[in-house]
Amino acid sequence: MTLTPLTVPRDGVPDVVVDERVLSRAADDIARGTGPVAIDAERASGYRYGQRAYLVQLRREGSGTWLIDPMAVPDLSPVGEALGDAEWILHAATQDLPCLTEVGLRPQALFDTELGGRLAGLPRVGLGAMVEYYLGLSLAKEHSAVDWSVRPLPEPWLLYAALDVEVLGDLRDAVAADLESQGKAGWAAEEFEHLLSFSGPEPRTDPWRRTSGMHRVRGRRGIGIVRALWEWRDALAQQLDVSPGRVLPDAAISEIAIANQRATTAPRRITVTEPRLSRSVRRHQEAIVEVVAAALALPEDDLPVVSLPPSGPPPPKAWADRDPVAAARLARARELLIAVSAELAVPVENLLTPDLLRRYLWEGPPAPTTEEVAASLRELGARQWQTTITAPLISLACTEHPAT
Q1: What is the C-alpha to C-alpha distance for residues 398 and 333, in angstroms, rounded to an integer?
Q2: Is residue 268 exposed (0-12), middle (13-18) or buried (19+ Cβ within 10 Å)?
């Protein structure tokens, strides 16, 4: 298929809204528009601390495209009020909803084009790939990972941002038509309704335990060094408003912990072997030495445990030893779900999340009926369409491998 490059917005690139008076005018204009509104947000992931929005783009029929700087006008609730119950069109809604909520924007109805593409069976669901597939357009993505906190924003970046919402309306209609033709429109509607309550990922217990390379750290003392360095880095990154990895990369934290995990005295100097990590260590040399020294001086009782007690089912690889029947049920249920996933052209993780499946099979009753499985899955958060498809398969897996 020959693709048509999409290089210029049909209305040109609008000026960025940077004061309250223009924001009020934008809200009035958007309120006079009709139909759904395409919305996108640009963050500075990898550059700034957190996931706040540094640019918000909106496009609605009859009001055109608006680019709003939430750093200059941090309260966008007038725009949210202007939109009322209009449907929002988002691509990968879970990425944008938290930062849009922070600036006063929250939808009452939405259509997620990325999730719609998954349910429609597309192998690639990035915005560029979906625009190519459905609309025959080539959408440049070279500015997707830039530092959107830069001011003033360069004109090519604003062009890119305007084009992102330029195509969302047409893409939404194409995805909706595809879902309707496949009999999946109702499934998508349930998923989109469920997304309205999404507020962000659940906070993790001991987030420092996810430090890359930590699996090589041994003992409570080494793990205590990781915790101390992670917490120091996070506080400094928040203070400086920079990505934590720009203060000190994970690899440096792990290497420092490994080098000092058996130390009996505080180090006079911290070094790392990889040249790419040395600059960060040198920049914060004095602080890092103090943090490591403090971790080495902690009483044993104040050190973190090597691993947290499990809060859910054990890893699947441990099921065969701990509960062979549950392991057999899991294997059979996975087999059945993979087969129906291929038949329906829906990713198996969208039919039912692996975590939810494991939780049910590990904790569920010995011989559940389809209705009992469906009720339990709904209590765990599954949608009606998911339980309709998966509950009979899970019940069958349990029937084929009865508990003794």
Answers
A1: 8
A2: exposed
> What is the average pLDDT across 232-245?
97
> At which residue do the structure tokens 């793990």 appear?
223
- Cβ burial, residue 317 (10 Å; 0-12/13-18/19+): exposed
Q: What angle do CA 40, 44, 46 make, to 5 degrees?
A: 135
Q: What is the DSSP letter of 6?
A: E
How far is Cα 341 from Cα 347, in angstroms, rounded to an integer? 6
- Helical pair 370-379 and 354-363, crossing angle rounded to 10 deg: 120
- Nearest 5°: the CA angle 60, 63, 66 is 80
Structure token pair of residue 117: 């593409």
Within 10 angstroms of residue 62's Cβ, the number of other Cβ atoms is 11
Are 207-302 and 316-400 equal in CATH topology? yes
Taking only the tens place, the pLDDT of each residue in 282-326 is: 999 999 999 999 999 999 999 999 988 877 898 899 999 999 999
Domain ranges for the chain, please list them.
4-195, 207-302, 316-400
Question: Check: CATH 3.60.15.10 for 4-195?
Answer: no
Give the predicted TM-score (pTM) of the model. Answer: 0.92
| Helix or strand run (H / E) with residue 137 | strand 137-139
CATH match of 207-302 with 3.40.50.2000: no
Q: Which residue is it, tokens 């099979």?
A: 361
Closest of 387, 365, 362 to residue 374, by C-alpha: 387
Indicate the pLDDT class of residue 1, thresholds 50, 70 and 90: low
Architecture in CATH of 316-400? Orthogonal Bundle (1.10)
Contacts with 22 (C-beta within 8 Å, 6 or more apart), sequence order = none
Question: What is the rounded CA–CA span in Å between residue 292 and residue 210?
Answer: 19
pLDDT, greater one: 203 or 125: 125
Q: 214: which 2 tokens?
A: 């930590």
